[in-house]
Specification:
By secondary structure, the protein is an all-alpha fold. Helices cover about 90% and strands about 0% of the residues. It has helices at about 5-25, 25-45, 50-90, 95-105. It is rod-shaped and about 80 Å long. The chain starts with a helix and ends with a helix.
């Protein structure tokens, strides 16, 4: 693994850590729940001919859900990056022997 790849993986791990802090934050969860509930209430209170208003509210609701999905994607990317870093950081005894023999046969 090159230094640039390692830096990129470590950045993904850090981004995932920050996303977890946000997703686990009670204030964030409350805000998202309230915001989504308010949008749905507004949508239900609209008249049947206000299609433009309904469309805008649907877009707002989708934006909130997309933000949550992006944070969850950061978490899964961080898990994958963490596994990749651990795999490269800790070669077992067989891996070290294999690397030694490869160097000897060159």
């Amino acid at each position: 693994m090159t230094d640039q790849e390692e830096i990129a993986l470590r950045a993904k791990v850090e981004r995932g850590r920050q996303a977890k802090l946000v997703l686990d934050n009670a204030a964030y969860q409350e805000a998202v729940t309230k915001f989504t509930h308010d949008i749905r209430s507004l949508r239900l209170s609209l008249g049947p001919r206000d299609t433009d208003g309904a469309y805008r509210l649907v877009l707002m609701e989708q934006a909130v859900e997309k933000a949550k999905r992006v944070m969850e994607m950061y978490l899964s990317d961080a898990d994958a990056a963490r596994k990749e870093l651990e795999k490269d950081e800790k070669p077992g005894p067989i891996g070290r022997l294999n690397a030694h023999f490869q160097r000897m046969t060159r």
